[in-house]
């Protein structure tokens, strides 16, 4: 790894590693978050029962993840990629947990 | 027995359909002994025939196996048919030569 | 990392291919074989080469085994009923020492001798979806990652393929190896694209609850059982510790069949055998539809009374069952089964030619610059491709060589077969790195020899040679496997000859 970094140049390797983490890890986290949010929202806003909604959003999550992966590597600006992923991630996970809190507590 | 015939029919329709589509392209038209360029009218005829045959393959598959199995059968058999056309063009291009010659005479 | 959409997709396609290609090949190869997993079982466990049962049989013949499972306090007792592809009854329960698998002859009720092999259904098939890496489900996650990568490879491949319609039918075998390899990669990729993409997506969708647990966790408060009960109607009783009998198997089976208008049954599954709160779950056999049906009937064990049953599925769940069924192919449709096998092989060719193209493109440059990338990747490729094939055939060969009941160093016969697989695989990597120039050719020769040996050993050890196999319907699977082994051997031999000729030409050129 050391020699690879020296040869490639740390300056080139770090953006690549960041992009990999963002696209693969961040993309997954965002897809999962969107699935969680949608799984809570769908039964409330439509007539779909929870058990159906859960399956639907999970199946769609694979395609959403695929889209995020492609965008993750196509997006020229690494900063924009990370910002958007972080923002959507926070909104979706926050929203999902917020709805859970709302439903269970006050 | 009719099942075997229908399956064969689906495959033949897919194979001939893709063969027609392939021959409508300049590169393959030239390879099977037609001229340098596939004439526009011939190309049009070939493409219409090709798509029609692929559609016929779909109908035959649906008749044989119903909606779900039929669509699966069609989707997979046309892939196999297309691969067979590729193999024909690569190793037995002369099989398609008579067809090209016939079309040249007609068109 | 480069600028431009196409350039970035090229980067993604190349690097995900190089890094995950070996894993993808293993998954695709094992998956292709798993199309015929039950037939492979029949080849590897000769005692189950039974003709289809003539008359209907009573499930009561399984009661002695049930009692054994109950006495061993096994948490479950599961029975796979005969189908078009499986003449013998499969029985499974758990004891202290581990899982116990037995086959029962439905014609006589006799428990067949332990085959001592994991075969296609318990080695090859699970390897395909979880790589036999059970720790923390890492195997599942690696396969999931590979699956997502495969879809990304399909999408990026289409994007970077400039002349996708012009080159649709183009394969030029007379050109240089690099052009030939790329042509073949493009043809298998583009023509097979719907299949490759859908088989990958459907495979992932099967395990949606494992890969995207967030959806059911936030809706069911992390209670996995609550979700499964709601979605699938599962009845999961709690063990009481009090002993309890088990009512007539046949009566419950007959009731289940009645509920589904006489439909055949696929399995019988008992939770808490021997307990006062045991539940028998009987599953419906739907060989005539694509969907992997989840219809099940639940009976109270001691009384035999019906608790609940399901027939029919809600729309979204139906879609998931259809996709699962599309992937599992447990339906009865032999033409489709063979087509899946062929297209699976096309997928293997796609992955292998991708590697070969990468190697050929970089070989000269790396040699000039003194980089070792090509050597490392080539070793990985050879081990992952021909090495995987050799390991598989080695698995078949050792199955015919080991006597029943063999064991060594505390490993039972089935474990010894698995050890052989992994050791041969490892050896192929070592061979590839030690002898890079000749490795491809030598491994092709090895493959040809071993595949032929497997067919010969089947004849010697079981007497079911090819002509005999073709004459009896219940031996067709065995004959089919022998034929495929011979065809594979022939292809490997031709490949080896071509490679040796190419290397001689190269030697003359470089001399």
What is the overall silhouette of chain C? globular
- Strand residue content of chain C: 5-15%
Taking strands numbered 1, 2, ... along the chain, how are they ordered across the largest sheet of chain C?
3-2-1-4-5-6-7
Series of H and E elements of chain C: HHHEEEHHHHHHHHEEEEHHHHEEHHHH
Total domains of chain A: 1
| Low confidence ranges of chain C | none
What composes the largest sheet of chain C?
A: 7 strands, antiparallel
Q: Can you tell me the overall shape of chain A?
A: elongated
The number of helices of chain A is 4
Q: Structural class, from secondary structure content of chain C?
A: alpha+beta
- Overall mean pLDDT score of chain A? 90
Q: Kindly report how far apart the N and C termini of chain A lie.
A: 52 Å
Characterize the structure shown.
The complex is a heterotrimer of chains A (106), B (107) and C (511). With 106 residues, chain A is an all-alpha fold. Chain A has one domain (22-103). Chain A has helices at residues 2-8, 10-45, 50-74, 78-104. In chain A, helix 1 (2-8) packs across helix 2, helix 2 (10-45) runs antiparallel to helix 3 (50-74) and helix 2 (10-45) packs parallel to helix 4. The longest helix of chain A has 36 residues, at 10-45. Chain A is elongated, with a radius of gyration of 17 Å. The model of chain A has no long low-confidence stretch (mean pLDDT 90). The mean pLDDT of chain B is 93. Chain B is elongated and about 45 Å long. Chain B has 4 helices and no strands. The longest helix of chain B has 52 residues, at 40-91. By secondary structure, chain B is mainly alpha-helical. Chain C has a 7-stranded antiparallel β-sheet, covered by helices on one side. Chain C contains 19 helices and 9 strands. In chain C, helix 1 (5-34) crosses helix 13, helix 5 packs antiparallel against helix 7 and helix 6 packs antiparallel against helix 13. The longest helix of chain C is centred in the C-terminal third of the chain and has 36 residues, at 334-369. In chain C, a hairpin with a 2-residue loop joins strand 8 (407-408) and strand 9. The interface between B and C is medium-sized, with 25 and 27 residues.
């Amino acid at each position: 790894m050391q020699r690879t970094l020296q040869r490639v140049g740390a300056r080139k390797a770090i953006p690549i590693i960041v992009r990999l983490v963002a696209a693969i890890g961040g993309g997954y986290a965002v897809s999962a978050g969107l699935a969680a949010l949608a799984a809570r929202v769908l039964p409330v806003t439509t007539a779909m029962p929870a058990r159906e909604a859960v399956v639907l959003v999970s199946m769609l999550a694979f395609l959403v993840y695929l889209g995020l992966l492609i965008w993750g590597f196509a997006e020229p600006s690494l900063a924009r990629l990370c910002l958007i992923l972080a923002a959507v991630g926070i909104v979706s996970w926050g929203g999902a947990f917020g709805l859970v809190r709302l439903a269970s507590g006050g | 027995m009719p099942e075997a015939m229908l399956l064969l029919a689906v495959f033949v329709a897919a194979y001939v359909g893709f063969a027609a589509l392939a021959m409508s392209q300049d590169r393959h038209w030239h390879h099977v002994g037609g001229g340098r360029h596939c004439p526009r009218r011939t190309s049009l005829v070939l493409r219409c025939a090709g798509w029609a045959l692929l559609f016929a393959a779909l109908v035959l598959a649906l008749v044989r196996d119903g909606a779900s199995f039929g669509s699966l059968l069609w989707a997979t058999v046309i892939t196999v048919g297309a691969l067979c056309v590729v193999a024909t063009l690569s190793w037995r291009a002369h099989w398609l030569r008579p067809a090209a010659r016939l079309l040249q005479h007609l068109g | 990392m480069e600028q431009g959409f196409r350039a970035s997709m090229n980067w993604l396609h190349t690097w995900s291919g190089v890094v995950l290609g070996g894993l993808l090949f293993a998954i695709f190869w094992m998956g292709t074989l798993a199309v015929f997993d039950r037939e492979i079982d029949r080849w590897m466990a000769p005692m189950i080469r039974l003709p289809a049962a003539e008359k209907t049989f009573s499930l009561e013949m399984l009661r002695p085994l049930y009692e054994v499972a109950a006495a061993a306090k096994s948490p479950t007792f599961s029975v796979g009923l005969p189908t078009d592809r499986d003449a013998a009854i499969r029985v499974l329960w758990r004891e202290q020492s581990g899982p116990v698998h037995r086959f029962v002859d439905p014609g006589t009720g006799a428990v067949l001798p332990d085959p001592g092999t994991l075969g296609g259904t318990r080695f090859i098939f699970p390897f395909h979806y979880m790589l036999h890496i059970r720790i923390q489900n890492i195997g599942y996650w690696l396969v999931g990652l590979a699956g997502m990568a495969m879809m990304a490879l399909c999408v990026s491949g289409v994007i970077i393929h400039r002349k996708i319609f012009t080159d649709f039918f183009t394969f030029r075998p007379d050109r240089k190896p690099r052009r030939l390899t790329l042509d073949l990669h493009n043809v298998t990729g583009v023509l097979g694209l719907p299949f490759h993409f859908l088989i990958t997506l459907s495979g992932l969708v099967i395990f949606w609850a494992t890969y995207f647990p967030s959806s059911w966790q936030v809706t069911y408060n992390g209670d996995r059982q609550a979700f499964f009960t709601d979605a699938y109607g599962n009845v999961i009783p709690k063990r009481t510790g009090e002993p309890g009998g088990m009512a007539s198997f046949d009566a419950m089976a007959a009731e289940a069949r009645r509920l589904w208008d006489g439909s055949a049954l696929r399995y019988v599954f008992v939770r808490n055998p021997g307990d006062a709160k045991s539940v028998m779950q009987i599953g419906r056999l739907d060989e005539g539809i694509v969907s992997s049906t989840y219809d099940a009937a639940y009976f109270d064990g001691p009384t035999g009374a019906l608790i609940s049953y399901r027939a029919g599925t809600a729309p979204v769940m139906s879609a998931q069952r259809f996709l699962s069924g599309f992937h599992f192919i447990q339906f009865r449709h032999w033409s489709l089964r063979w087509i899946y096998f062929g297209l699976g092989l096309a997928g293997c060719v796609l992955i292998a030619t991708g590697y070969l193209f990468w190697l050929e493109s970089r070989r000269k440059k790396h040699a000039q610059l003194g980089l070792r990338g090509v050597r490392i990747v080539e070793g990985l490729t050879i081990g992952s491709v021909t090495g995987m094939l050799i390991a598989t055939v080695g698995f078949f060969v050792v199955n015919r060589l080991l006597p029943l009941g063999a064991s060594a160093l505390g490993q039972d016969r089935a474990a010894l077969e698995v050890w052989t697989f992994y050791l041969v695989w490892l050896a192929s990597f070592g061979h590839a790195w030690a002898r890079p120039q000749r490795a491809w050719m030598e491994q092709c020769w090895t493959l040809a020899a071993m595949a032929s040996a497997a067919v010969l050993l089947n004849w010697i050890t079981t007497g079911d040679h090819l002509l005999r196999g073709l004459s009896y319907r219940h031996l067709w699977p065995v004959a089919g496997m022998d034929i495929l082994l011979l065809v594979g051997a022939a292809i490997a031999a031709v490949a080896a000859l071509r490679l040796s000729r190419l290397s001689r030409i190269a030697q003359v050129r470089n001399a």
